[in-house]
Design a protein that fits this description.
Elements: H1 3-53, E1 67-68, E2 83-90, E3 93-102, H2 114-119, H3 126-167, E4 175-176, H4 183-191, E5 197-206, H5 208-213, E6 220-225, E7 231-232, E8 235-237, E9 246-252, E10 259-266, E11 269-270, H6 274-278, E12 282-283, E13 290-295, E14 303-311, E15 316-324
Parallel strand pairs: 8-15
Antiparallel strand pairs: 1-2, 1-4, 2-3, 3-5, 6-7, 6-9, 9-13, 10-11, 10-12, 10-14, 14-15
Helix pairs in contact: 1-3
Amino acid sequence: MRRGSRGSMTLELILVLPVLFVIIWGGSAVAYSSLAKASLQMTAERAARELAAGEAAARIPANGPLYRYGEFTETYGLPRARVQMLVQKQGDLIVAGACFRVPLTLPTFRPAPPELLEDLNGVVPDDVLASADKVVDIYRDAKEAVHEGQELWANVRSLWTDTSDLLQDPPQEFKSYSGPGGGMAGALGYICRGHGLVVTTQAAFWSERSLKSLPPLKVTIEISENGGPFTSADSLNVAHLQPASTRIRIGTTPKDPVSCYADVVFESGRSQAEDLVKNNPRPTEAGNSVNWVFYAVANTNPQDVPIAISCTNGQSGTRFLKITND
């Protein structure tokens, strides 16, 4: 191998290694951020569930401002002092938002010492050495900038550590959030601002008190024969049904704009009708109504078919459709 080739390979290695380190460092940061996101989601869900099930939710005014909350009991592996949480009551819905700032330590690179380049005189072509000298100068400047950044970051971490000691014993009451607006998402971004990736998430649960006061759902069953209008019915005779001629429409009207699930269970198993499979859950439409439509099957055995609908606000209801074949 010629000396010029060896010098070129050395220069290429000097240029490639920093990029390789950045890729490894970036991949680690992304992986840790994904893990933090999953842990933060479970943290927010547990906090919202505990608030909704307890009496603490009664201390939050409905449709009021955001409150900082520090009584969450579990962070699922995340440093507790670094997790910030806001809560808000939207009607009877308890919303908990959490954020976590992923600490990112700046990678440092150590350039090749000038003595090494001096030893390569006569071995490496002059043009390659000149390029290497420029690379060394760039690395020196970058090293100084990184060193200054690390000193600043160390000061910030020291300040954060002092603050974390104060946060280890959370307040026993909710504290009003007094930062900039922008809703829950904007407030979470503000309280976790700083160096590093900010991970945020939200979770919501209906308060237990509101669920106890919700009335059961009224399930409606309507049948359309041979393309005619839908009419209310409690029974269906399948003795003379033509294929794809009779449609069944089930629906309900929950108290709030939510999403609902429909479950139609025959003796042979759950219905696999297209509308029931593809649109579960289905969000409510105008007037909070929600409906599913599917075709009746002629070879269905006589039976009472339970039609159950449940919604994400906790309401549910069941009605039976009597199938006859005579």
